[in-house]
Amino acid sequence: MIKLAINGLTFSYNSVPILDDICMEVAPAKLLSIVGPNGTGKSTLLQCVDRVLKPQQGSILLDRKDIMKMDRMEIAKEVGYVQQNVKRSFPTTVFDTVIMGRRPHQGWRTREEDQEIVWEILELLDIDQFALKYFNELSGGQQQRVLIARALAQEASVLLLDEPTSNLDIKRQLEVMDIVKELVRTKRITAIVAIHDLNLASRYSDRMIMMKDGKIVIAGDPGEVLTAEKIEAIYGVKVDIKIQSDAPYVIPLKPVKTKKVRHHGNYFIARSKKQSSSIDRISDNLSERFGQVKVLK
């Protein structure tokens, strides 16, 4: 059974390609991590799934229903989304911020049942002591947990998390990922997490996809995705891989060096075959600033 199916998804900003022919399937009750370098399209993919952005081509099916044909309230009942960059100056209390997640179920009228659900989630994320504080008075990490709590309050069957651990200390990172993993197991939700930390992704994921330049370059379990060869090819970093608790653990060693030499007014960049075509874009930018740039292959 497939919970979410994406076929031929293509998206561009002002004719600049961001996602290119994305195809993927996610089963129910699984945690899927999306990894890849900055600017590779991870956040854009999540925004397309939540229909914040409308792709130019392709389809997104949720329980075999076309998301593009669902109204906003239907999507809110099925998909909870925590953005990476969101305006964090809500003039509301933590409790009121989280109970907003109940709106798809309650409308504008708060029921006792909704309040009980919110209190349970606040306790689960250890933020119940902040319930009556204003959201904008909290630290970045505390705000992050409140936003995750609001998404959980939706009781959606699909949870999208864009860098959920980015503002958290190491203890809170583990706590949040433990909670997400437990919800996947007990509530049978499908969690899709865009994340930079390869070791957190390895530890908690059932499946992973690695992206580069708007494309999925490999998908599989963490052991299949996180190999030294693939990480060097995609990230341009040499790593050592250890197995810890039956999952690969990535130890960064050093970046793969590129050579740049100036010769007769031109810049030359050398690269290994494993490095991505992103160097081509760098050379284009240099050309605009310094004149002709040639890439040595």
Annotation keywords:
single chain, 297 residues, alpha/beta, Rossmann fold, 2 domains, 31% strand, disordered C terminus
Q: If you consult CATH, what is the topology of the largest domain?
A: Rossmann fold
Q: Could you tell me the mean pLDDT?
A: 87
Q: Structural class, from helix and strand content?
A: alpha/beta
N/C terminus separation: 45 Å
Going across the major beta sheet, what is the strand order?
6-7-8-3-9-10
Query: CATH first level of the largest domain: which class?
Result: Alpha Beta
Short description:
This protein has 297 residues and is α/β, with parallel strands linked by helices. Helices cover 34% and strands 31% of the residues. The protein is built from 11 helices and 15 strands.
